[in-house]
């Protein structure tokens, strides 16, 4: 279900899918995917609203997707042997994400 959340970063109300919810001392926090900006953000539970009927039917501008058969790699540096090798990683590193976004632009 798509909701409307207030993004502190963007300073506006945005359509979002709720990914997860966790409890903090001052209330609940929601991890959301902004469907029109392709961004993830954390939002306080007081900043979420139900989306009005007609607005729920507008198509999303962003879609979550994955690159088929593309696995993250990282550079392993061995200072003792003075070598560097590419190897598998659990997550994409920040430099790789930044490089990929530049390619898309």
From TrEMBL:
<keyword id="KW-0067">ATP-binding</keyword>
<keyword id="KW-0378">Hydrolase</keyword>
<keyword id="KW-0677">Repeat</keyword>
<dbReference type="InterPro" id="IPR035437">
    <property type="entry name" value="SNase_OB-fold_sf"/>
</dbReference>
<dbReference type="GO" id="GO:0003724">
    <property type="term" value="F:RNA helicase activity"/>
</dbReference>
<keyword id="KW-0347">Helicase</keyword>
<keyword id="KW-0547">Nucleotide-binding</keyword>
<dbReference type="InterPro" id="IPR002999">
    <property type="entry name" value="Tudor"/>
</dbReference>
<dbReference type="GO" id="GO:0005524">
    <property type="term" value="F:ATP binding"/>
</dbReference>
<dbReference type="GO" id="GO:0042078">
    <property type="term" value="P:germ-line stem cell division"/>
</dbReference>
<feature type="domain" description="Tudor">
    <location>
        <begin position="3"/>
        <end position="68"/>
    </location>
</feature>
<dbReference type="GO" id="GO:0016787">
    <property type="term" value="F:hydrolase activity"/>
</dbReference>
<dbReference type="Pfam" id="PF00567">
    <property type="entry name" value="TUDOR"/>
</dbReference>
<protein>
    <recommendedName>
        <fullName>RNA helicase</fullName>
        <ecNumber>3.6.4.13</ecNumber>
    </recommendedName>
</protein>
């Amino acid at each position: 279900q798509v909701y409307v959340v207030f993004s502190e970063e963007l300073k506006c109300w945005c359509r979002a899918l709720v990914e997860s919810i966790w409890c903090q001392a001052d209330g609940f926090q929601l991890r959301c995917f902004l469907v029109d900006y392709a961004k993830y953000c954390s939002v306080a539970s007081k900043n979420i609203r139900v989306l009005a009927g007609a607005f729920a039917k507008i198509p999303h501008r962003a879609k979550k997707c994955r690159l088929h058969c593309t696995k993250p790699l990282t550079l392993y540096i061995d200072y003792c042997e003075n070598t560097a090798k590419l190897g598998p990683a659990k997550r994409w590193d920040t430099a790789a994400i930044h490089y990929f976004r530049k390619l898309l632009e």
